[in-house]
Amino acid sequence: MKRRALLLCVVILIQLFVTGCWSRRELNDLAIAVGIGIDKIGDQYQVSAQVVLPSQIAGSKGGSPQSPVNLYKATGNTVYEALRKITTLSPRKIYISHLRILVLGEDLAKEGISSVLDFMSRDTDTRNDYFIVVAKDTKAEDTLKILTSLEKIPAVRLFSSLETSEKQWAPTSTVTLGTLITELVSKGKNPVLTGVVINGNVDVGQTQKNVETVDSPTELKYSGLAVFKEDKLIGWLNPEESKVYNYLTNKVKSTVFYIQCPEGKKVSLDVFEAHSKIKGSMHNDNPEISIEQHIESDIGEVQCRNLDLTNPKTITELEQIANQKVVHLFETTIKKVQQEFKSDILGFGEVIHRSNPQAWKKLKDNWDQTFVNLPVSVKTDIKIRQLGKVTNSFLEEMK
Questions:
Q1: Which of 225, 242, 338 minimizes the C-alpha distance to 289?
Q2: Whose CA, among 107, 291, 324, 346, lies 20 to 30 Å from 89?
Q3: Is the pLDDT of residue 131 over 70?
């Protein structure tokens, strides 16, 4: 009897700590947004939400074909207000916990993105695992209108393509909300975001015809990195310059670049490992930066006819040519960032801070001016390891 009474008391105590599903949300009451676009329209913000249609994603058959997503948009004095105003169009509340991509319009990025990021960081529904990009030469709204093949949901396609591109090609960069805010508040590094462009006609891209042909007439494509100074967009890096940024920030996992043979044709090198060491020092009370870039690569393609790859001297010559090209690319990109943008996106200020905290206290308030004329030395070490399944190309035999 005592045992039963004790058990009953335990059950009652447990119930006090079990709250149940008090915060539950019924799926039928929510519109799941996987992509959000934010544009500046005059003094107001326009929020566009790409919402998934579950019935189309599940592959239901019958009836006329329908888009797998809908796009709802509204304008308000704040981002939060605009998002809530979408309920005047959508029968369900916009739910952004499953957000995959946040697209910022170029005009908004030029004016400043800090107010937008405050909402995204404050909202309790969102997670911080989505990527943030800038719509280049277009509105964020238009990028979310384009239907895509292979991936039914365009926002998921943008997320996966950016992730794959960073790993395999390297002129793009995956940036999450936490990383972006950290770089915005840092005095030693300014942020960058990947740019997304629309190749083709927007009106065609938002119709079913865009995914009914082998070659879609309108495509979404990532191109270059947007350079920020504080929270404002000030310019763009081209794909080659964007690769340099990723090399220097140790984000290159794999990529391809080519060098020229003495006869003028090309050899492709498959980079499978890259590591950059950036060191800061003080010389006569002036900061200096030295860069050591190590790259491991394999030969991926040979177009040259007079190239004996079985000879170690040939490999050494190719490595020298590759080193010269990479050093030149690094130096020109760093100079452009210093002289044209005057924005330390490469994190040289953070390097000085780590190497000499006392000196950084004196430098940080005027770092933008110091960065422009900061001496930077570049040294590269490129190694060619493997030749592939064959040694010399069959082009030599054809000759």
A1: 338
A2: 107
A3: yes
Residue for token digits 């000030």?
Answer: 234
- How many secondary structure helices (H) and strands (E) does the chain include? 15, 13
- Contacts of 108 by beta carbon, 8 Å cutoff, 6+ apart: 38, 39, 40, 45, 116, 140
What would the pLDDT profile of 343-353 be if each residue is shown by its tens digit?
Answer: 999 999 999 99
Contact (Cβ atoms closer than 8 angstroms) between residue 263 and residue 395: no
Give me the DSSP letters along 333-361.
HHHHIIIII---TT-HHHHHHHH-HHHHH
Distances 293 to 40, 273, 274, 392 between C-alpha atoms, Å: 41, 11, 7, 28
Helix, strand or coil for residue 144? coil
Give me the mean pLDDT over the 122-151 stretch: 93
Q: Which helix (H) or strand (E) holds 5?
A: helix 2-17
What letter represents residue 194's amino acid? T
Residue 264: the pLDDT is: 81
**Prediction pTM value:** 0.91
Beta strands 44-52 and 376-384: pairing type? unpaired
Which residues are CB-contacts of 231 (< 8 A; sequence separation ≥ 6)?
Answer: 112, 113, 114, 117, 184
Q: How far apart are CA 145 and CA 154, in angstroms?
A: 8
The Cα–Cα gap between 121 and 1 comes to 55
Average pLDDT, the chain: 91
Tens of pLDDT, residue by residue over 354-376, are 999 999 999 999 999 999 999 99
Confidence of residue 257 (pLDDT cuts 50, 70, 90): very high
Note whether 53 and 72 are within 8 A (CB): no
3-state secondary structure of 345: coil
- Separation between Cα atoms, residue 330 and residue 325, nearest integer Å: 9
Judge contact between 66 and 53, C-beta under 8 A.
yes
- Rounded CA gap, 375 and 368, in Å? 14
Spatial distance between the Cα atoms of 62 and 218, rounded to a whole number of angstroms:
27
Q: How many CB atoms lie within 10 A of CB 250?
A: 12
Q: How do residues 61-86 score in pLDDT, each as one tens digit?
A: 555 578 899 999 999 999 999 999 99
Give the ranges where 186-311 is alpha helix by DSSP (H).
202-205, 239-248
What are residue 243's phi and psi, to 5 degrees? -65, -40
Maximum separation of any 2 CA atoms in the chain, in Å: 100
**Cα angle: 389, vertex 390, 395; to 5 degrees:** 140
CA distances, 387 to each of 63, 294, 305, 310, 382 (Å): 55, 19, 15, 9, 15
